[in-house]
Amino acid sequence: MEARILRIYLDDVMLDMAQRGEFGFVARVTKAFEEVGFRVELRRNSFQERVKSAARNGYSLFLMDDPFHPKSLTMRKSYYFPFWRIEATPKRWEFEVAKKSFDPAEIDTVLAQKWFANWRKWLFKQGPETAERTGIVYVALQGKLLEHRSFQSMSPVDMIAQVQARVGEKRILLGLHPGEDYSDEERRALDAIADADPRVTVQTGGMDEALRLCDYVITQNSSAALSGFFFEKPAILFGECDFHHQMPRVSQLGVDEAWRRLDGPPPAYAEYLYWFIAQNSIKADVEGDAEETILATCRRFGWET
User: Fold this and answer.
1) Angle formed by the axes of helices 24-34 and 12-19, to 10°?
2) Cα 27 to the chain's mean position, in Å?
3) Which residues, 6+ apart, have CB-to-CB distance to 95 below 8 Å?
4) Would you write out the chain's pLDDT as a tens digit for each of its 305 residues?
């Protein structure tokens, strides 16, 4: 029987918030475990502390870091507050929900549409209500633009080339992530692409307006594609992720077939977002339900709670 201790490892900002009682999900986790007899400790996250956690009695919960030993799990925001996940891997394409099947026929459409209408207004104000398609292809970029990583069908710059070859006269907006630090080499590569192709514009940030105006979203696995569903914009994925169920994936279909499906039946936007977010994550502001779901999730991963 493992010692009834849970240590939650947080970076300095999140640790300070949690200690002041302002980190809602950590408060729910703490309450859930204390109610079943655990001692909960909030600890400063560092590589050294995570390594030490493997030898300590009790369980460890990391914020987005790799749960590298059998007594550890990771927690991650499910894209929009107050929704969270607890997982046994940091790889989104290996999350529990990624392995599930989605069937829109199993979703209460009336309930999903009501949820969808409320949440898109909460998250994006009036943007989705005024959405239009203006001949723009929004390419949502993340980091490491010149590398072909294991979860990707090709590198981001090669993905851009595939977009250029297929969009005809549509304009191409390359959206850089405002939180990424791009190298000089990456910047030069993007500048060269934009200089050689008058259809191409490069900008940092501005996702909401890009989603409002674009025809569709192309990305490796940026959450911009998921947010685009609130604007009723379809997407193609060149990488693996957890929200792939209603988006053509190049890894499964190839580029040509993925593109062809953009002209097929539209995704079940409302039903999918309701299923993916509301039904398959932990809503941290619902007292009672959240605690029960937290404990049940940890038990599924083998924790004795």
Assistant:
1) 60
2) 22
3) 85, 87, 89, 242
4) 688 999 999 999 999 999 999 999 999 999 999 999 999 999 999 999 999 999 999 999 999 999 999 999 999 999 999 999 999 999 999 999 999 999 999 999 999 999 999 999 999 999 999 999 999 999 999 999 999 999 999 999 999 999 999 999 999 999 999 999 999 999 999 999 999 999 999 999 999 999 999 999 999 999 999 999 999 999 999 999 999 999 999 999 999 999 999 999 999 999 999 999 999 999 998 777 899 999 999 999 999 98
